[in-house]
Amino acid sequence: MPLGEFELIARYFDRGPAREAILGIGDDCALLAPPSPHCVTAVSTDMLLAGRHFLADDDPATVGHKALAVNLSDLAAMGARPSAFTLALAVPQVDEAWLGGFCAGLFAIADRHGCELVGGDTTRGPTTICITVFGDVPPGAALRRDAAQPDDDLWVSGTLGAAALAVHALGEGRPRSPGDPARMRLDRPEPRVALGLSLRHLARAAIDLSDGLIGDLGHILDRSRVGAEVDWSAVPVDPSLDGLPEPLRRRLALAGGDDYELLFTAAPENRSAIEAIGGRLGLPLARIGRIVAGEGLRLHDARGRPLAVDAHGFDHFA
Ligand code: ADP
Ligand code: MG
Fold it and tell me: Is a pLDDT exceeding 50 seen at residue 315?
């Protein structure tokens, strides 16, 4: 490497003394201040591989944004407040233009969420980005997948299907241009951190939608040992899907991944409080169904007629 490992770390990743952590980059370990005695640490890791989760010629700022965004989304889904992250990075060579762009995207979203880079590892290899995030949450307020109860309302934030539309267009050989709204949803997902924090003590179970509504709802149902009824006509389908053939529209909205919206359950008595949160955050929250005793997912139309659940969430090993 023309630029040595330590110069690379110093130039791109070490931004001076830690602000929040007791000790950041530069020692054998970072030292994180314990959260308030009433909080526990929420930890999550996500890995992005060139050629699989992004392409080598993707805008590096987009790659930097997305690498942290998907991790922050996991904290959001837990109701945790982001505090710090580590970055394990492999790159085939020191490409300063790529590193500069990557850091610009990475630190912009990190700073917006008050999440500090406190350490990592840097090595030569096929481009791989592995981020571990740390956040704080009072243990009783964490939004766990196993907490849904029969008669809970089922809610989803934002709109669904736009990111999947951008993936679909890519697969058809007609990639959307970088400024296209569907492409923006795929490239620049906005982790719903403020929503997750607002849902503490109001929601019961939550998950972020990385693999599609049906697949991710399935995780809540399995963990909570319950079933669900979903009203397709209440699902907030993104307007970019308007005009598509209905089977494709339904597949993208229900089984397409990468939206990073939050799916959550809450007791019906919290309806007006949850609607108020949506208003305050300027983020639509749609009530799409309910949790029922038993198992399995039943999808129906506006008049209650059953619709086939033929779509599956995305599974890397399927
Ligand atoms: P060690 O050999 O003790 O694992 P390293 O030589 O790998 O330490 O790293 C030196 C310091 O730089 C450590 O504090 C480590 O956390 C930090 N670091 C290494 N790579 C990165 C990176 N990509 N981003 C942030 N910090 C990094
Ligand atoms: Mg190391």
Answer: no
Is-contact 313 257, C-beta < 8 A? yes
Ligand 1: residue of 8, 25, 87, 130 to mutate (most ligand atoms within 8 A of CB) is 25
Whether 227 maps to a domain, the answer reads yes
Ligand with minimal distance to 5 CA: 1
Same domain? For 112 and 162 the reply is: no
Task: Please state whether beta strands 227-231 and 296-300 pair in parallel, antiparallel, or not at all (unpaired).
Answer: parallel
Model pTM above 0.85: yes
What would the mean pLDDT of 105-120 be, rounded to a whole number?
98
CA 260 to centroid of ligand 1, rounded, Å: 29
Reported as a pLDDT band with limits 50, 70 and 90, residue 34 is: confident
Q: Give the pLDDT of residue 105.
A: 98
Report CA(31)–ligand 2 centroid distance (Å): 16
- In degrees rounded to 5, what are phi and psi of residue 264? -145, 160
Q: Residue 36 — very low, low, confident or very high, per pLDDT cuts 50/70/90?
A: confident
Q: Report the SS3 class of residue 227.
A: strand
Residue 16 sits in a domain whose CATH number is 3.30.1330.10
∠ CA 290-193-317, nearest 5°, is: 70
Last residue of a domain, one of 82, 108, 140: 140
Q: Who lines ligand 1 at CB under 6 A?
A: 9, 13, 25-28, 87, 89, 117, 119-122
Which of 122, 131, 127 is CA-nearest to residue 3?
A: 122
